[in-house]
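Need the bound structure for tetrahydrodeoxyuridine, inputs here:
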Amino acid sequence: MTDIDWDDLRQVATEAMHRAYVPYSHYRVGAAALVDDGRVVSGCNIENASYGVTLCAECTMVGDLFMSGGGRLVAFTCVNGDGQTIMPCGRCRQLLFEHASPGMLLETVSGIRTIDEVLPDAFGPRDLEDAR
Ligand code: THU
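Answer from helper R.:
Posting the output first, comments after.
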């Protein structure tokens, strides 16, 4: 699967962004990803009065991934309230790594990057398997 419709993915992320619940930061985020079976999943950030409990858009997107049948992420993008591409936060890069297909692509502020470029030498499931 090499042909990725980034415009479509960004559109889905933008639609998700409009559903964000952001009474504290007022900073909307929408995320969308192409799954290895061709599905597209999406999510928005959902904040909480206990700030640390906030769910990033990537978190709810991974929930959508599992609730709609699972699979591996092939391509990912996220946008802010202005529709601008933003970088996933550090915690969410780890979250994406866990569910990435090999060579997963991300639209970033510096162009299309692989998951390994945005989270080099990642700790992941293999480290736990190797230790068993
Ligand atoms: N946020 C995300 O949803 N994803 C990210 O990768 C970066 C940050 C949200 C969390 C919070 O609701 C708001 O952006 C401000 O940090």
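Comments: DSSP finds five helices and five strands in the chain. Residues 48 and 54 are 5 Å apart (CA to CA).
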